[in-house]
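Incident log, support desk, overnight shift.

02:14 A customer reports that sequence design results differ from what the structure should imply. Their input is reproduced verbatim below. On-call engineer (initials T.W.) acknowledged and began investigating.
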């Protein structure tokens, strides 16, 4: 049996954020074989130019670890240098509002719960979090 990367995705907190942004992650479950690409959708609306979309990973019994974050237009990605596998991930702006986390080639160490969040740098308030992915 080949190793697989299992993805369970469900919204933990969605709807209107405190600043009018919304975060929606429609996928509920995904399974990928090792070496395959995976995309995790995060639809965010209402972003201003000072907003960033962040992606986090959490493993059982561990704290959240930020993988990376990207600006509103998707052109500037900042990877967390403390996250050893950060280079395995990118964010692809699939349309104006869909900030998909792309895993280039899944491997067992990628298994975990993934969260997307919106951060407004002008107010320093986290707007919304969602998206477990195992």
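02:41 Re-run completed on a clean worker. Output:
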């Amino acid at each position: 049996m080949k190793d697989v990367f299992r993805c369970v995705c469900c919204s933990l907190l969605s709807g209107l954020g405190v600043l009018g942004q919304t975060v929606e992650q429609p996928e509920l479950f995904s399974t990928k074989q090792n070496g395959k690409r995976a995309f995790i959708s995060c639809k965010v609306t209402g972003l201003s130019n000072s907003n960033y979309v962040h992606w986090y990973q959490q493993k059982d019994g561990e704290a959240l670890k930020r993988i990376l974050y990207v600006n509103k237009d998707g052109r500037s990605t900042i990877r967390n240098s403390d996250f050893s596998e950060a280079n395995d991930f990118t964010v692809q702006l699939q349309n104006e509002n869909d900030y998909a986390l792309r895993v280039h080639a899944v491997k067992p160490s990628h298994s975990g719960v993934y969260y997307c969040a919106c951060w407004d740098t002008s107010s320093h308030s986290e707007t919304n979090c969602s998206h477990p992915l195992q």
